[in-house]
Amino acid sequence: MALDWGIGRYEETAKALEPVAEVVVQRAAVTPGERALDLGCGSGNAALELARAGAEVVAIDPSARLTDVARSRAAEAGLHIEVRNGEAAVIPLEDHTVDLIVSVFAVIFAPDPAAALADMRRVLAPGGRILLTAWVPGVGIGKAYSAIGPAVAKATGAPPPPPMFAWHDESTVSSLAAGYGLSVSTERQEVVFTADSPEAYVELDATSHPVWVDGFARLREAGAGQDVMRVPALRALHEINEDPSAFKASSDYVIVTLR
User: Fold this and answer.
1) How far is the C-alpha of 74 from the C-alpha of 48, rounded, in Å?
2) Residue 156 burial by CB count (10 A; 0-12/13-18/19+): exposed, middle or buried?
3) Using CA atoms, how far apart are residues 78 and 35, in angstroms rounded to an integer?
4) Does domain 10-258 have CATH number 3.20.20.140?
5) Largest Cα–Cα distance in the chain?
6) For all residues of the chain together, what is the average pLDDT?
């Protein structure tokens, strides 16, 4: 079952990803008046940046609660953004109607990467481009998240989570994109996560991030405690911590551009 990103309060943890949205929109080189799609908009980080850059923005996400958050943020900022519910593999737009698609840590979680890319290609106008971000696995904050999935699976008797499609790897994406007439280039970047301590970082995610909220619910159903997630996550965060007096973790990601 796909994770429901509307549970918890993803908008709280998404605040740390606002710098990524800013970088991606800068790289997109928006021309005022272009029609841009923020696919998997979440709380609207990239959609707001696209609107500020002068694009005509439509923001799409499967979570009704998060689209409400994005809509409210746009209204508060005085920005016009068309917000809809929809899936990456079935985008509710007509063929060839957007000049730019941006997806910040969203499409990478689509259950069927080929179907998602096919539908992005369908709605993309001639000469358009797609910019998406993907985490580099095994480094930075991803080390904590790679630890908790198998721990929850073991405690609940579920099969281990399947490996994700390697969106961060240029050759892998190029092999998929070639069938849709898309060229691929990548650029490695980093974003820094901070908190008062590793424990404080875990507490923020544990009370807001959908992965944690979903994991805790599954552990409760199996009669297991929260330490199944907390212990390996804290161990990983202490290992990657760059600031002994607080918490700092530089985490690598890749901007993938498809044209």
Assistant:
1) 6
2) middle
3) 18
4) no
5) 54
6) 96
Distance CA 152, CA 141 (A): 18
What element of type H or E holds 205? helix 198-208
Sequence ranges of the domains in the chain: 10-258
CB-based burial, 193-228: b 16+ in 10 Å, e otherwise? bebebbeebbebbbebbbbbbbbbebbeeeebeeeb
- Tell me the chain's radius of gyration from C-alpha atoms: 18
pLDDT digits (tens, 9 = 90+) for 206-222: 999 999 999 999 999 99
Position 245 pLDDT exceeds 70: yes
Integer Cα distance of 95 and 229 in angstroms:
43
Decide if 66 contacts 42 (C-beta within 8 A). Answer: yes
